[in-house]
Design goal:
By secondary structure, the protein is an alpha+beta fold. It is built from 6 helices and 19 strands. It binds copper (II) ion.
Length: 397
């Protein structure tokens, strides 16, 4: 007979299978109270149903980065190597049906995590919590499930991009998602998020069009895009712009993808100048079905609440040509306080045409009136965990 020892303050319970089942359910429901029992007994599967074994595996590092130059706030980042950690972290890419194993190494000093802690009894660690794809309790990235990593330690997380089941109608996981810490500071990872532990995830279906480059725009508190405002949100070098979290650059005709995420406590509206997209899973609508096409709104502005994410692909400069195209929150006081950056679209030869007599339409980009801007480097490293394809530029690089 299996004996379940009740917690000290609970009244004694009757023994037997019914009690065992009740406790098992309570374990799931109550969280921390039953975690040790659940995890130690192997009650929770370590991989989602459908994921027999990981198709790929990769290493992820959580590190401390230099403090924010204007606020002196602690900054943390994820990286595929400690040297390339950034905020947002590396853009993750999966294909439906794929199972990915990520080993997270926590290289953030314990003293730093202690500074960020809002409750002295809260454990110190970092985690990886993901939206959209499938994971079990052991990859939830929460304190109560024990799925976090102490400083100097590592832990495996398994994500499964479940495909659509056309027989049951169960949806697939293709879409634009994000991942983040859920432990730093308190039970909801609020300090981890506000310090930089977040990144974008795109799950594609077989046959989806691939972008030439992908940018992640995380709209957050303090009127921030990727935790920056104003000039800090756009640091593109006028002569040699390097694509990255603070330099959105593309050539005319390139297929540019955005992953847009809301964090923090504020509502925002994402607006991109000169370009619009279909409000679908991909931002695109294929085929010639007029009824279908007409039923899908075409938008250039989208509301974004905390935790929301969406994405789309555009053809850079489509019908509008090169230019410094603004990207900003359309809540006016947010944009006025610096919640704005620029998508710099160069011509086919990688140059920014001289401005007209009307002057530049952007504020924080390369030096106004500068004649030429050279091409961004072609491609870049393959997105985190992505099957290799040419030309993709992960935002975390
Ligand atoms: Cu806003």
């Amino acid at each position: 007979m299996i004996e379940i020892r009740p917690e000290p303050k609970r009244p004694p319970r009757t023994s037997g299978l019914r009690t065992l089942l009740a406790l098992a359910v309570a374990t799931i429901t109550l969280g921390s109270a039953g975690t040790a029992l659940a995890v130690q007994s192997g009650f929770f599967a370590d991989k989602p149903e459908g994921c027999v074994a990981p198709d790929r595996s990769l290493q992820m590092y959580a590190v401390e980065l230099p403090k924010d130059p204007s606020t002196n706030q602690i900054r943390l980042g994820y990286g595929l190597t400690p040297q390339t950690a950034s905020y947002p972290g590396p853009t993750m890419e999966m294909i439906e049906g794929e199972c990915l194993e990520i080993t997270l190494h926590n290289q953030v000093p314990e003293a730093t995590l202690a500074q960020l802690r809002t409750d002295p009894n809260h454990p110190l660690g970092v985690s990886l919590h993901v939206h959209g794809v499938k994971y079990t309790q052991t990859s939830d990235g929460t304190v109560h499930s024990g799925s976090y990593v102490a400083s100097g330690q590592s832990r495996k997380y398994t994500w499964y991009a479940k495909p659509r089941n056309s027989k049951t109608g169960s949806p697939g996981t293709a879409g634009y998602w994000w991942y983040h810490d859920h432990v730093v500071g308190g039970a909801h990872g609020t300090q981890g998020l506000s310090s930089g532990l977040f990144g974008g995830l795109v799950v594609r279906r077989q046959g989806d069009p691939r972008p030439d480059r992908t940018y992640v725009s995380v709209f957050g508190d303090r009127q921030s895009i990727n935790l920056r405002r104003g000039a800090e949100a756009d640091t593109c070098d006028a002569v040699n712009p390097q694509p990255g979290p603070t330099c959105l650059v593309a050539k005319v005709g390139e297929r540019v993808e955005f992953i847009v995420v809301g964090i923090g406590n504020d509502m925002h509206t994402f607006h991109l100048h000169g370009h619009a997209w279909a409000d679908t899973r991909t931002g695109l609508v294929a085929g010639d079905n007029k009824a279908l096409i007409d039923s899908i709104p075409v938008i250039d502005n989208k509301t974004l609440g905390p935790g929301d994410s969406f994405g789309f692909q555009i053809v850079a400069g489509d019908a509008v040509g090169p230019g410094h195209w603004m990207l900003h929150c359309h809540m006016q006081f947010h944009s006025d306080l610096g919640m704005a950056t620029t998508l710099h679209i160069l011509d086919e030869s990688g140059q920014m045409p001289p401005h007209t007599a009307h002057g530049p339409a952007q504020v924080n980009g390369p030096a106004a009136g500068s004649g030429a801007t050279s091409a961004p480097p072609a491609g870049g490293s393959t997105a985190a965990g992505a099957p290799a394809h040419a030309g993709h530029q992960p935002a975390g690089s």
